[in-house]
Amino acid sequence: MPRVSPPVHLPLVVPDGKAPLRHRIAEAIVEQIRLGHLRIGDALPSSRVLAAELGVARGGVVEAYDELAASGFVVAVAGSATRIAAGADTAARAHARPHPVAPAAAPTPRPHTRYAPAVVDLRPGLPDTALIAEAPWRRAWRRAANTTPTAGSVDPLDHPELRRSLAAHLRRNRGIALIPDDLVILPGVAAATRVLAVAAELDGRDVAFEDPGYHRARRALVTEGARIRPVPVDGDGLPPHLLADTDAAVYCTPAHQYPLGSRMPVARRAELVERASAAGMLVIEDDYDGEFRYDVSALPALRSVDGGRDCVAYLGTASKILSPALRLAWLIPPDPLRASIAEAVTVCGEGANAVSALALSAFIDDGSLTRHLARTARTYRARRAAFVDALRRKTDDLDGVHVAGIDAGLHVVLSLPDGLDDAAVAAAAEQLGVRTTPVSTQLAGDQGPRGLVCGYACLPESAAGETATVIAAAVRQMVAG
Q: Hey, which residues does 316 pair with through a beta bridge?
């Protein structure tokens, strides 16, 4: 017999007012959480049932539930009810709102004010998975589940469906001319970096690496024996003139330098490819969040620059556009390395999950990924604007503090004055309730810029002001000594 969920009754009182119905319903539910009448894990009534109880149109309840999910108060579980999310009670008691509100002047926190434990996680690299449309996502996984998986061999020509789908996607969205056989599917960027290191025989050789730069990619190269040669980045990313004759490869993130957030200009991209091509140097282009850019024009991937096919290895990932849980990345190796890559994939045993690959292929093929990217770009743009505006307002009186890296990606950087310990500022912010990442953790050594890397993808606009206030308070606390 089919399983029938017990009816859920919620004695909700929705206040009158001029605010949209969805806002009033969402706020009434948050109030029930704050009062303890709804607890973590409790199921909400179906939208149809609650609409009938309130005597309102079902669309208003559906929109209220969507609003609560987007702001993190509830989670919609596939095949189950919509339930109160972990941390919702803390947020409700802190009077967090489920939707944007007009900003109000907030007093500067007193030095000894007590705050709740950290509930706002701004660590970079975490997209908002609640924005994935449920129906097409389930449909993609049903299609994948109805396909018999392969025997589990590790082969660079595995996952033909996903390679075909991605080839079309990358041509449209990143301007890269390729065919499906150009692509290799791997279980993450770190795995792709290791495969490249083996294929290019980087063991014992120098690799020019952005400093600060992505520490996991640096670790993957070191694991395969490469010698990292840190290259300080500037406001335009990695300077090509700092490459050395001894460099066998160079790693960079031109679309949105990690972590400082600069975009490499076209002229510098062309110079980098030209220098690398002339020197027989491998360029590892990590395009980790290149799909997201705001109010700026698209710039060509290094792979699509003249000469790029011969020296650029392009890396992309599903981690930022959908979820890190998919464990899927794609590599387009330079033409001279294709045979070596095939051997390295087999030797390293870096095989991606076949079912995940089929599901992503289905999600791309029916247009769902294109619609998802359009929807998330709008949402992330609004969240970025609210957070950047709040940070600027809360820190405009602090010398040497400014917001950078705002044109693309899913994080910004709050640059700090010289000599200020960003690890100490991050620790102070976490004590006050906000978790960030110090720039210094991405440095190869002790010297370099200082700041806080703040991912805003999961930060509701309504929480931007309070979050910025806490970060500013932490900076003031450390400046005051």
A: 330
Torsion of CA 444, 445, 449, 451, to 10 degrees: 80
In this prediction, residue 102 carries a pLDDT of 40
Reading across the β-sheet that carries 411-415, which strands appear in turn? 402-404, 411-415, 451-455, 437-438
Pairing of strands 120-121, 434-435: parallel
Contacts of 62 (CB under 8 A, 6+ apart): 47
Q: Among the residues of 185-238, which ranges form H helices?
A: 189-199, 215-223
CB 347 within 8 A of CB 198: yes
Q: How far apart (Å, rounded) are the C-alpha atoms in residues 200 and 280?
A: 11
* CA 69 to mean position of chain CA atoms: 18
CA separation for the pair 428, 290 (Å, rounded): 32
CB of 61 closer than 8 Å to CB of 53:
no
Tell me the pLDDT tens digit for each residue of 96-148. 667 654 433 434 444 444 444 447 999 998 899 999 999 999 999 999 988 77
CA 432 to chain centre: 24
Angular region, 140: left φ>0, alpha ψ -120 to 50, beta rest: alpha
Strand partners, 285: 252, 314
Residue type, 366: D
Strands (DSSP E) along 81-180, which ranges?
82-84, 120-121
